[in-house]
Design brief:
The complex is a heterodimer of chains A (346) and B (384).
Chain A: E1 13-23, H1 28-32, E2 38-49, E3 54-58, H2 65-72, E4 80-85, E5 88-89, H3 95-104, E6 105-108, H4 122-132, H5 139-152, H6 169-181, E7 187-191, H7 199-216, E8 219-224, H8 227-233, E9 236-241, E10 244-250, H9 251-256, H10 261-269, H11 275-280, E11 321-324, E12 327-329
Helix pairs in contact in A: 4-5, 4-6, 5-6, 6-7
Chain B: E1 27-38, E2 41-53, E3 58-62, H1 69-76, E4 85-94, E5 97-98, H2 104-110, E6 115-118, H3 132-144, H4 148-161, H5 167-170, H6 180-192, E7 198-202, H7 210-227, E8 230-235, H8 238-244, E9 247-252, E10 255-261, H9 262-267, H10 272-280, H11 320-324, E11 330-331, E12 337-338, H12 346-352, H13 376-381
Parallel strand pairs in B: 3-8, 3-9, 6-7, 7-8
Antiparallel strand pairs in B: 1-2, 1-4, 4-5, 9-10, 10-12, 11-12
Helix pairs in contact in B: 3-4, 3-6, 4-6, 6-7
The chains are: A alpha/beta (346), B alpha/beta (384).
Chain lengths: 346, 384
Amino acid sequence: MGQDRHEGTQPLLKVEHLTKEFPVEGGVISAHRKGSKKVHAVEDVSFEIYPGETFGLVGESGCGKSTTGRSIMRLTTPTSGTVIFDGKDVSTMSRAEFKSMHRDMQYIFQDPYASLNPRMTIGEIVSEPLTIHNVMPDAAERTAFVRELLDVVGLNPEHINRYPHEFSGGQRQRVGIARAFALRPKLIICDEPVSALDVSIQAQVLNLLSDLQREFGTAYLFIAHDLSVVQHISDRVAVMYLGHLMEHSDWKSLYTEPHHPYTQSLLSAVPVPDPDIQHARKRIILAGDVPSPIDPPSGCPFHTRCPIAQGRCSSEVPTLRKVLPGHYCACHFAEKNPIKESSIRL
Amino acid sequence: MLFGRKKRDENYVDLKELPVPEGEHLLEVDDLKMYFHTQDGVVKAVNGVSYTLDRGETLGVVGESGSGKSVTSLTIMGLIDMPPGRIEGGDVRYHGKSLLAMSEEEMEHIRGNDIAMIFQDPMTSLNPVYTIGRQLGEGLRLHRGYSKKEALQRSVELLDMVGIPNPEQRVKDYPHEFSGGMRQRVMIAMALACDPDILIADEPTTALDVTIQAQIIELMQEMQQKNGNAIIMITHDLGVVADVADKIMVMYAGQPVEFGTADEIFYSPLHPYTWGLNRSIPDPVIDEKRPLTPITGNPPSLVNVPAGCPFSPRCPYATERCHTMAPELHVSETGHYARCHFAGDAAFVAANAPATSRTRGKSAPDTPKAHAPRHAAAQEGGEA
C-alpha cells in the first residue's frame, strides 16, 4: 500500500528538504542581519505526489501547511530545498519555463469571496488562464469552452456574464474550480477549499472535486485542517506540526494505525457525530498551546505537549522513518508507543 | 455591604435564587417569532422556535449559516435592536417569568447574572484596552456589588478555575497577550463569574484548532458538572453536538425543523433535512469511504422563503403538497417534533432515513432514491 504502490512510477511532484523562514522584523536590513529572529514556518519537509492521486496535508493553524503549498507554487520563495515538478527543478527555471509550468499546476484558494475579481464576469475569470497562456486564441471557441466548463462544475452556462457577487459561497468556489481546471493541469493545490462553506455545500464541492479528478486524472495537494474531510478525499495523508512533517502514509493506515502521539491526539480530539461512539471513545486532551514558531522547542517540536515524551525527545530531532510499509513517522518511540494499543481511532 | 458599589435595587431578588415554579421549566421558549423589518422586506429570522431547558441540561442548536440559530439566542437575551427587529409572537419564560415583558433594567439583571453568553470570536468580544482582570470583575461589581479589590481577587480564582497558569500575574495582562484558546477560557470564566443558570455558547470552538476545541469542551462540561448550569450550545458541527448535547434542535430558514433528545436526533431522525446533514458529512468511523450525498441547492434567503415547506426546493422527497402547504409540527409523546408532512408516516421514515451505527447491518438505504439534477445548485441560487 501507500508509497509502495507507486514503486516504479515517476512522481509528479517531488518536494525535498523544503524550508521556509520569514524574518520577524520588517525591512531589508534587519532581515539580513545575523541572529535576527525568524518564523520557522516550514522545516525540512519532503514528500512526493504521484499522478492522479490526492495527497492530503493536515495540521492545526500555523503549522506551515499553507506555506508549503505556496512555496511549491512559488507564490513565496522557499529559503532552501528543492521542488521538482514533472522532472524539472522549479527553483532553477527560467521565466518562460516557469510560466509554462503554471499551465500544469494550478491553485484553488480558501476564500471564495476574496479570490475572484469582483469587476470581472465569471466568464472572464474562467477564461483568463486561457488568455494568459494563449491556448485558445479564437474568442468564439473560448466562450464555448468556458460555457462547457461552467456546465461541468455544475454552474448554469447562461450565467457566464454574471459577476461574482451574484453567486453564493459554494457557487463561487465552483467558479474557482472551473478556473483551476481551465488548462487541464496535472496538479492542483487546493488550500482549504471547503472550510469556508456550510456542511451541505461542502459535500457538494468535495463530490465535484472527486468527479473532476476521475474525469481528468488531476493530482491534488489537498491542504485542510478538518481531519474527516481530508480522510474522505485523500489517498495519502501527511500530518504537519510546527513546520515539521510528523507522519505520512496512505489514508487508511494513518487513520486506523496512527503511530505518532501527535496524530493520535489530533484524531482523538475530533468529535465523532455519533453519540454512542463519541461517548465511548478514549480521548487524549493535550495540555497547553502550540509553541511559537519563532522560538520552536529543541529536539522534537512536539515534546512540550507530548504525553509520552522522554529526555531524549528534547535534545534529538526525530527523523521520518518507515514504521509500516508506506507508513512513515517522525517519533523516537513510534514502535513502542503505548497509546497505539488503546484504540483511539476515529 | 460595607464598601463598594451597591446594587441599583436593594430589594431586587435574583430569579436564579428562587426555585423554578411547579410545572414550569428553567427556560421555556414558546413559538417565538422575531422578524426584521428591512428595506428589502420582512426577514423572518426567528419563526416559531419552541423548546424547554432545565438545569444541568445541554441543548445543542445546529444549522447552517443564516438558519437563525444565533439570532434566536440574541432575541432571548434581548440583544436585538428593535427596530428593525420586532417580536411577532410567542414568549420566552425564565423561571416562569416572561423575559420579553421585562423592562430594560430588569433585563440588565438577567444578562450576565442569570443568563450569560460566550461568542465565537474571543478576540472581538474582549475589550483590547482593559486588563483581563478588570473585564472579569465587571459583572461581579455590577451584579454583586463587589469592590475593586474583591472583584480582582475573585478574578484570580476564576482564571485559576478555568486552567490558566499563573493567574495572579495574568489578571494584569491585556487580551492580546493571550492565545485564542486562552481567550476563550477567559470568556468562559467571565460568563461563569456570577454563577448563571444558563450559559449560551455561540460557536465557542469554531475559531479554535481541534486540540484546543477538545480542551474548551472539556472545560465547559467540567464547569457544568460543578455549577449545575444549563448550556445552550450553538454550532454547525454535528460532532460537537454529539459530544455534549442532551437535547438537539435542528434549524433551517429560521424555523426549528426537528427537536428531540440527542438519541432521537442521531438514531431516529424524522426530518429529511436532518437526514441530509447526516449524509453530507464524511463518516469518520467506518473503514471504507462512503460517498457523500450532499443536499442539492443552497439555503433560501430569509426575505424570500419558499412557499410551503421552506426545505421543499432542496428536499429529494418533496411532493406537490410540500411546495404549497407549510407542514405542521408532528409531535411524539416524548416531545420529539419534526416539521414535515411525512414525519408521522412510519413507513416513509423507515424507508428513507439514513443508516446509523445502531441500524447498520440491518437494511436501511444510504442514499435518497430521487437524485436531483446536477445543475440544481445553479438554478436555485443563481440570483442570490
